[in-house]
């Protein structure tokens, strides 16, 4: 039965590669499968040539070759159920590493793109979707239809990187002790990543942010370094290891690689991200009467609207000192701006925990934090009403 299941998966992969669906990505290679105008394809399937990091240096392909799907799901990787025939998916052996290889060949592992030859993964890279997509769990936990833009809050990038065979070579190139790096990477936990660790060797991971509801947001990132395309370029080149250019004199970076696989893709990628609306709260997930009272507080006594303004509830490009907010200053201190952006609130119900470092477990905790920090004097009932309003956005 096991052999039959793997054979069915590989047959499905072959059928996908040879079918008439011109919207499907081409078989994985280091070349982009996407047109420069196809933002969804870029978001989901373009590695920007980052195989140079994940294959040539970190040797991630060697790790996944022996990785059972259950283990992969356990560190937060997701499977796109629509990329695998339903009957095949239902019978797949999730304890067999060969199933992982077959899923990679099907391009069914969200945010992972690999080349499989004779049953072996020979090249592998990652895409934007690895961190900024999840699935609806409609088949099983971690297996379902894609939800682009939703942060993958169970993905543990640090644990995955810590297990790669080539990590010692990588840390040596950074001048960082490998044991120290492994300890730091393993401390991050699910849903967190430190996009500055390979720049300053400090470890202060932040929550993977949503990539939805960004159209009217002037500045991306918790610290507001620049618009969406700025951060897309920074991550693609300095974090994903893509083959492209990035320059920011504020942080002393001037990276040039030819051909530039990143810059031509940024406009379409931005437009696709702009097209992803923040998800509406599920019906019955909040108390509408309490939320109406909370709205009055939000715009009045609680003073929330002094910063959370406009359709996206952010006053960006205005930035704020950490001392204004009462949150940890570490992320701001390491950034180009030294300050924090007001976080947009649309869809906030979907992505607990909160604050850049996840220090608030619930929106109620966020309300309590500001009630104390700003000495608002809200009663317990008022704090509950305000939480319900935030859950309604």
Poorly predicted regions are: 1-28
Biggest sheet strand line-up:
1-5
Number of helices: 19
- The averaged pLDDT comes out at 93
Kindly estimate the percentage of residues that lie in beta strands according to DSSP. Answer: 5-15%
Pairing-aware structural class of the strands and helices?
Answer: mainly alpha
Whole-number tally of structural domains: 2
Shape summary: globular
Main sheet specs: 2 strands, parallel
Measured on Cα atoms, how large is the radius of gyration? 22 Å
Oligomeric description of these chains: single chain
Total strands: the figure is 12
Gap from first CA to last CA? 48 Å
* Share of helical residues: 25-40%
What is the topology?
Elements: H1 2-18, H2 39-45, H3 51-54, H4 60-65, H5 69-74, E1 79-80, H6 86-91, H7 97-105, E2 112-117, E3 120-126, H8 129-132, E4 133-135, E5 143-144, E6 146-148, H9 157-163, H10 167-174, H11 178-187, E7 192-193, H12 197-200, E8 206-207, H13 228-239, E9 246-248, E10 253-255, H14 266-275, H15 288-299, E11 319-320, H16 322-325, H17 330-334, E12 340-341, H18 363-373, H19 380-392
Parallel strand pairs: 1-5
Antiparallel strand pairs: 2-3, 4-6, 7-8, 9-10, 11-12
Helix pairs in contact: 1-7, 2-14, 9-11, 13-14, 15-19, 18-19
